[in-house]
Amino acid sequence: MTKIKVFDVIEDELPALQQWIEAHKGTVEVELTASPLNEQQLETLDDVDGVTISQTTSFDSAYYERLVDKGIHHIAQRSAGYDQFDLEVANQYGVKISNVPSYSPQSIAEFAVTRTLELVRHTPQIDKNIATQEFTWNLNLQGRTIESLKIGVLGTGRIGRRAAKIFSGFGSEVLAYDLLPDDDLRDVVTYVDSLEELVSKVDVLTLHIPGSKENHYLINEAILRQAKPGLIIINAAVVAFWIHKPSLKV
Q1: Domain that holds residue 158
Q2: Contact 156, 182 (CB under 8 A)
Q3: CA 81 to each of CA 7, 85, 172, 214: distance values in angstroms, whole numbers, following the listed order
Q4: For residues 169 and 220, is the Cβ–Cβ distance under 8 A?
Q5: What is the distance between the alpha carbons of residues 104 and 163, in angstroms, rounded to a whole number?
Q6: Same domain assignment for residues 152 and 66
Q7: In a domain, 247, yes or no
Q8: 145 shares a domain with 169
Q9: Which helix (H) or strand (E) holds 97?
Q10: Partners of 4 in the beta sheet?
Q11: Alpha-carbon gap, residue 213 to 198, rounded angstroms
Q12: How many domains does the chain have?
């Protein structure tokens, strides 16, 4: 019988996990643990065929060889993001990495738009002022309409294309950059030729790209120095893409 060990289990996952276990009773044995996959847990995998971990767990590339030595060639990631894995090393050891291909792209796109609305309307600070009954006029809290802003979408895949359509529905002009432009989206966005061009033209930049090695530090000082003053960046992806420099002001 196939045996799977599930790491990083949280309470919210238990109903779905128990339902899956019940549906596969007699064919798959499942062991659940709240522990992450670590050195100690590696010693418990002698009779295990596959493991699954969550996105919150870091993964040491030295584990690939240890897993293969125990006959484990498959790691199932319980999220869409898989940036903690070195895929080149995994391939060298013949370890397959699977992930959740998509979960509610619409929700993530709406979250990006919601965060934009909060920032351009200064909603968090206004909420604090209301809670403390601070009603003094403050010009710095004067908001802007989404319609008046140029929106930049970096990455027009499953999530980015939905975000672009929502922003367009507000009446915004939407620009986008993607290595593989979506021709079906051209009635909603105007594609530009480079990231540099995108940041130089937009008021809001929303990120919807994978956390691959190629994208690390993509939003760097050189890029930000070409940005319009006051650029708002919404990171709706899975990792930070920029080198953080507190002294750098856009």
Answers
A1: 105-235
A2: yes
A3: 16, 10, 29, 15
A4: no
A5: 12
A6: no
A7: no
A8: yes
A9: strand 96-98
A10: 30, 50
A11: 21
A12: 2
Contacts of 211 (CB under 8 A, 6+ apart): 81, 83, 237, 238, 239, 241
pLDDT in tens, 156-207: 999 999 999 999 999 999 999 999 999 999 999 999 999 999 999 999 999 9
Residues 114 and 229 grouped into a single domain: yes
pTM of the full structure = 0.75
pLDDT band at 8 (very low <50, low <70, confident <90, very high): very high
Report phi then psi at 43, rounded to 5: -75, -10
CA torsion sign, 244 to 155 to 201 to 205? negative
Dist. CA 33–CA 83, nearest whole Å? 23
Q: Verify that 110 and 70 share a domain, yes or no.
A: no
- Banded model confidence at residue 217, pLDDT cuts 50, 70, 90: confident
* φ, ψ of residue 164 in degrees (nearest 5): -60, -40
The residue length of the chain stands at 250
**CATH code, domain with 147:** 3.40.50.720
Query: Which two tokens mark 28?
Result: 């798959």
